């Protein structure tokens, strides 16, 4: 079958690549059935010992070996896939989908990648210095290795491109904002869009009639307010640092802290950025960015670690509740609140603490449903709660794969 025809066949697959600074995540997805055929990760790229894992059907391959760069990482992925008995030639691969975090003002629709798109994405590096350069590197390596396939960029910022000006704009000097393209771009857009659409489908309600709050609580965390399928506010801004407290990022803070540290603590801007991105949030305050571990430290009660972890948890919940309150006000009448991503899908305590006491605002959780170990999309609100509360697993890879084939179909 020619490649051009292959993208219409129903067992077609898309290789989804998500390149971070020191890791490459990848998965092989059938966009039509939603089946994930293979998934894996190469971590600690460039360090002395890297780790790579691949699951393909019931087979698992692991490698602990130095991986010098992204080029080596992608080669290793293909090797491991061969070792697991897979064959990229025969899985009906029709495209490679790349997650790009920042698309700036101009790149937002899922886009067929050519040299000009790569150049543009490279130019956007100053807007997302931690995210865009490794993603662009991943695109370049993958294009070299799979030159006959279309490569498609899917931007984290896309869903929020048309945020209303009142929520997209910062109250700063207009000329400066315009010249330097400073606005609230929003991130995790693929997840917010996917989950809000799934919520409508799950409730069997038209998307355009629903006012929704989506809480994407993973290692990174963000909230969005969505009216009739269109986002009207989101917690992340120019960069993915704004908003909720996250695994390793501070979220909202007084910008004065940065000037104070630069002037008084004599910290370089890069060091402040690293501290706010990598050594803040629940890790920086509480000693671990994994909520399972955070709960364990608190339960163990050994001081002062337990007190630090407790405060980190309390700050996390306090910020989350502030955003929920803000978005209830932004939307007016909220029909659905949905929790998603690693913490949102798995941590019943976080969900309960985020919503306890909100019955006067129309939000009431059912303790029993909330504690249920069920997986998959589910309701966790009380029967008489005016706002329905859901847990819906996100699937950014599937959403990226579907966006890819949609691009191919119009191309
Ligand atoms: P990302 O994609 O941003 O790396 P995920 O959405 O996979 O993040 O979320 C990872 C986080 O989810 C972990 O750091 C951990 O805090 C949390 N998590 C995963 N499983 C559980 C669980 N069973 N209970 C509580 N938290 C969990």
TrEMBL record:
InterPro entries reported in the protein's UniProt record: Ac/propionate_kinase, Aliphatic_acid_kin_short-chain, Aliphatic_acid_kinase_CS, ATPase_NBD
Name of the molecule in the record: Acetate kinase
Pfam families per the UniProt record, alphabetical: Acetate_kinase (PF00871)
Protein family per UniProt: Belongs to the acetokinase family.
Top EC group: transferase
Active site: 156
GO molecular function: acetate kinase activity
Residues reported to bind ATP: 25, 216-220, 290-292, 342-346
Residues noted as binding substrate in the record, renumbered to the chain: 99
Gene3D superfamilies reported for this sequence: 3.30.420.40
Role description: Catalyzes the formation of acetyl phosphate from acetate and ATP. Can also catalyze the reverse reaction.
Cofactor(s), by name: Mg(2+); Mn(2+)
Site (Transition state stabilizer): 188, 249
CDD domains reported in the protein's UniProt record: ASKHA_NBD_AcK_PK
Superkingdom of the source species: Bacteria
Annotated positions binding Mg(2+): 18, 396
Record PANTHER family: ACETATE KINASE, ACETATE KINASE-RELATED
Catalytic activity, reaction form: acetate + ATP = acetyl phosphate + ADP
Coiled coil: none
Family annotation (NCBIfam families): ackA
Pathway terms, separated by semicolons: Metabolic intermediate biosynthesis; acetyl-CoA biosynthesis; acetyl-CoA from acetate: step 1/2
Co-factor remark: Mg(2+). Can also accept Mn(2+).
Keyword tags: ATP-binding, Cytoplasm, Kinase, Magnesium, Metal-binding, Nucleotide-binding, Transferase
């Amino acid at each position: 079958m020619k490649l051009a025809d292959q993208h219409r066949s129903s067992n077609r697959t898309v290789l989804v690549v998500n390149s971070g600074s020191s890791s490459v995540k990848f998965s092989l997805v059938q966009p039509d059935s939603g089946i994930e055929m293979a998934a894996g990760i190469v971590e600690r790229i460039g360090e002395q010992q890297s780790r790579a894992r691949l699951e393909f059907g019931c087979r698992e391959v692991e490698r602990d070996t130095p991986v010098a760069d992204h080029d080596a990482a992608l080669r290793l992925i293909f090797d491991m896939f061969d070792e697991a008995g897979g064959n990229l030639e025969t899985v009906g691969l029709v495209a490679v989908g790349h997650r790009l975090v920042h698309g700036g003002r101009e790149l937002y629709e899922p886009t067929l990648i050519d040299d000009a798109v790569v150049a543009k994405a490279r130019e956007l590096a100053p807007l997302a210095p931690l995210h865009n350069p490794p993603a662009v590197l991943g695109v370049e390596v993958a294009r070299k290795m799979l030159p006959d396939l279309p490569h498609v960029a899917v931007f984290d910022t896309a869903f929020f491109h048309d945020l209303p000006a009142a929520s997209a704009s910062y109250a700063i000097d207009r000329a400066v904002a315009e010249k330097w393209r400073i606005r609230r771009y929003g991130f995790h857009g693929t997840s917010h869009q996917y989950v809000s659409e799934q919520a409508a489908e799950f409730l069997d309600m038209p998307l355009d009639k629903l006012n929704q709050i989506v809480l994407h609580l993973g290692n990174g965390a963000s909230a969005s307010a969505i009216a009739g399928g269109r986002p009207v506010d989101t917690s992340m801004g120019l960069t993915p640092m704004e908003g909720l407290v996250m695994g390793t990022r501070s979220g909202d803070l007084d910008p004065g802290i940065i000037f104070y540290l630069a002037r008084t603590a004599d910290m370089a801007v890069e060091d402040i950025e690293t501290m706010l991105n990598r050594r803040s949030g629940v890790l920086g305050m509480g000693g671990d960015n994994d909520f399972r571990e955070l709960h364990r430290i608190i339960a163990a009660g050994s001081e002062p670690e337990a007190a630090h972890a407790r405060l980190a948890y309390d700050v996390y919940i306090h910020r989350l509740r502030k955003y929920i309150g803000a978005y209830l006000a932004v939307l007016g009448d909220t029909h659905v609140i949905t929790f998603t991503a690693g913490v949102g899908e798995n941590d019943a305590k976080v969900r309960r603490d985020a919503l306890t006491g909100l019955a006067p605002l129309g939000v009431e959780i059912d303790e029993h449903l909330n504690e249920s170990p069920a997986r998959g999309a589910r309701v966790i609100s009380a029967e008489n709660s005016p706002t329905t509360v859901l847990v819906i697993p996100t699937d950014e890879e599937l959403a990226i794969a579907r966006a890819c084939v949609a691009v191919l179909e119009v191309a």
